[in-house]
Amino acid sequence: MGEGAEALLIELGRADGMILPLAEAALAFARLDRPEVDPEGYRAHLDQLADELAAELGGVSAPPLKQRVAALVQVMVGNHGYQGDGATYDDLANADLMRVIDRRRGLPVALGILYIHAARAQGWQAGGLNFPGHFLVRIDAGGERAILDPFAGGELRSAAQLRKLMQLLGGGRDGGGSAELKPEHYRMVADREVLLRLQNNIKLRLLQAGGSEAAFEVLRRMRLLAPGHADLWRETGMLANHIGRLTAGIAALETAIRLDPAAEWRHEAALLLQQLKGRLN
User: Fold this and answer.
1) Which residues in the chain land under pLDDT 50?
2) What does pTM read for this prediction?
């Protein structure tokens, strides 16, 4: 089963556009760690979320935004109890979609993927928000938009609350940023970036725990989904140097420079590449 999961990620890595099968891709990442687990039960749960949301709307074809949000929160929180895991936030299970479904707890981005899946199954416009440090979900309808916080039980976030959230995060747990709310923070990001953000949470926690080899594997998986992301290749090269994988580091840095020859980190990468080649010889 793990082979099928990896094949899907490779296929998605070749795909274009903003939209990907978010939940299925997140399941694929989870299956790489537990290839013995049958994913059909998790797929059935994803279908259940979509079906319950449709039932909650009572057959209304184009409900107003307020009704959509209320129905989505009812399904996710009222029916299934999905919440953020504030008690054990750094537990790796919080970024594994299968374990998130099992536990009904997770990181903002993992929970957000479930919200987006259920919403898109209704044909709604929904996606992840370009907000630093804390993943949020945006839903559009009738010229209006709603921003939901899946970690906080799907609560709506106003501009004032978003500004306060940025101040509290001080740039966020997983990225930099100022406390100034900008139009770009309301922009939906491509699904590929959502999935990379999910995996990046795992990678960072592994590195913090000294699991460099495991983090190296996570980077490999991320590159399956985003083979053209020069930054991932650069980071792979740097980590390969750290763990003594000289040949892999050389190949990764050469690829990074080829993909983005004008990158601001090009000089640093070229110097490290020269050092690795010298050590290999």
Assistant:
1) 171-177
2) 0.93
